[in-house]
Design a protein that fits this description.
This is Trans-aconitate 2-methyltransferase. Keywords: Methyltransferase, Transferase. One of its GO terms (biological process) is methylation. GO terms for molecular function: trans-aconitate 2-methyltransferase activity. The chain is globular. Helix content is 39%, strand content 25%. Helix 2 runs parallel beside helix 3, helix 5 packs across helix 8 and helix 6 crosses helix 11. It has 256 residues and is an alpha/beta fold.
Length: 256
């Protein structure tokens, strides 16, 4: 995927809120080394550094465009341009934080214990992932993919939801942890503008499909999805679009 920082940050306030909610649920302690996995444009990594100014904070990000934006937003953070799927650090971290990133990686049954192994004993793992994949915003992307001349090019992207339920992650992390805190929040996001749910997904999940298509076919796919999703999320009397969005959170302290 080619990430567009400007498109992603169109809804930066809404995207930042769960990241801050996660950050505030991490107990007070004094980590010396912190990794932010999927650090994106650095707006959250900057907040991590502000909370723990004496720690060495490393932003790990696979998009060159996002790393460039992150270096501007958080110049006092160390940046590592590498694919999360190939992240094999030589050291452990006192805190591994990841906001809206790990759902892009497969095989969570193996992934989460592997990430926890990179946390120092007594350290913390803090993760937020979207769990909105059965909502119209995301289901209609798959429906559009399977009902058009582009089907053969994009149907392989129509897969089951990448994030499991809370109990799945509890069962993975509890044997490795002293304490596990897992919860879900559904935010009622009030969006402005023309077809804002399409613009929202265009910054994330829809990008996978649009990257594969070219020219007129790409525009036609976006328009077909846009028509469907606008009907699913009509404007209210005030001209706003209400977009419920569910997210899964977890904070786990590794056994000492």
């Amino acid at each position: 995927m080619v990430w567009d920082p400007q498109q992603y940050l169109k809804f930066s306030g809404h995207r930042l809120r769960p990241a801050v909610d996660l950050l505030m649920r991490i107990p007070d302690f004094a980590p010396r080394a912190i990794a932010d996995l999927g650090a994106g444009a650095g707006n959250v990594t900057k907040l991590i550094k502000e909370r723990w100014p004496d720690a060495t904070v490393t932003g790990v990000e696979g998009s060159a465009e996002m790393v460039a934006a992150g270096r501007k937003a958080a110049p006092d953070v160390e940046w590592s341009h590498e694919d999360l799927g190939h992240w094999r650090p030589a050291r452990q971290y006192d805190l591994i934080y990841s906001n809206a990133a790990l759902h892009w990686l497969p095989d969570h049954a193996a992934l989460f214990p592997s990430v926890m192994a990179k946390v120092t004993p007594g350290g913390m793992l803090a993760v937020q992932m979207p769990r909105n994949f059965l909502a119209p915003s995301h289901v209609l992307i798959g429906e559009t993919a399977l009902n058009g001349p582009w089907r053969s090019k994009v149907e392989h992207l129509v897969t089951p939801p990448p994030v499991e339920g809370p109990a799945f992650y509890h069962d993975l992390l509890a044997p490795l942890s002293q304490n596990v805190d897992i919860w879900e929040t559904e935010y009622l996001q009030v969006l402005e503008g023309d077809n804002p749910v399409k613009e929202w997904t265009k910054g994330t999940w829809l990008t996978r499909y649009l990257d594969i298509l070219q020219g007129g076919e790409k525009a036609a796919f976006e328009a077909a999805y846009g028509e469907r999703v606008a009907k699913a999320y009509p404007k209210n009397a005030a001209g706003q679009t209400l977009f419920p969005f569910r997210r899964l959170f977890m904070v786990a302290q590794r056994k000492g």
